[in-house]
Write a structure and sequence with these properties.
CATH class: Mainly Beta
Order of helices and strands: HEEEEEEEE
Number of domains: 1
Structural class: mainly beta
Distance between the termini: 36 Å
Number of helices: 1
CATH topology: Jelly Rolls
Number of strands: 8
Largest sheet: 4 strands, antiparallel
Helix content: 10-25%
Radius of gyration: 20 Å
Shape: globular
């Protein structure tokens, strides 16, 4: 019995030393203009560098179709337009999501734009497709390919991320 208890204690201590801190954060906001870019910082300073980022902004026929792009040291790491597989219980097919493993520790930036305002190149300073356009309020704007003549476009987004 004493040997079993010693073994269990050793296993628990080993597990706690090797456990990685996991945290989840969320941010809710609004894009007011069709060419607006929202920036959020995600620090990865511990753990294994595993990152999950997703939106749940298309629900209830609000029709906000987000694009998320992840940047590190100014360079594009990944981009997602339509990926509902990160958290399928809450995501719609037009929501965005990324799952990345073993990222280098450091500070990352995620940008949120309205579809199809994609980055122009692989550098965060390179701008986005709609940068040069006259801003249009999202509530009165119909994205290309959206069913018309009335588009139901909300401006609310929800961004979530977990780091492990």
């Amino acid at each position: 019995m004493k040997t079993a208890l010693s073994l269990l204690t050793a296993l628990l201590l080993h597990a706690s030393v090797n456990a990685q801190a996991t945290y989840e954060q969320s941010f809710n906001g609004h894009l007011e203009l069709h060419n607006q870019v929202e920036y959020h910082t995600i620090p990865i300073y511990s753990g294994r560098g595993n990152l999950r980022v997703w939106t749940d902004s298309y629900t209830s026929a609000a029709s906000f179709d987000p694009v998320i792009t992840l940047w590190h040291n100014g360079a594009r790491v990944a981009m997602s337009d339509d990926n509902q597989t990160v958290n399928p219980l809450y995501q719609h097919p037009r929501d965005a999501g990324l799952v990345l493993s073993a990222l280098p520790l450091g500070t990352y930036v995620v940008t949120i734009t309205a579809y199809p305002n994609f980055p122009l190149n692989n550098r965060i300073g390179g701008g986005f497709v709609y940068d040069a356009q006259t801003p249009v309020p999202i509530r009165g704007w119909c994205p290309p390919g959206a069913p018309g003549p009335v588009c139901r476009t909300d401006r609310h987004f929800s961004l979530h991320w977990t780091v492990q």
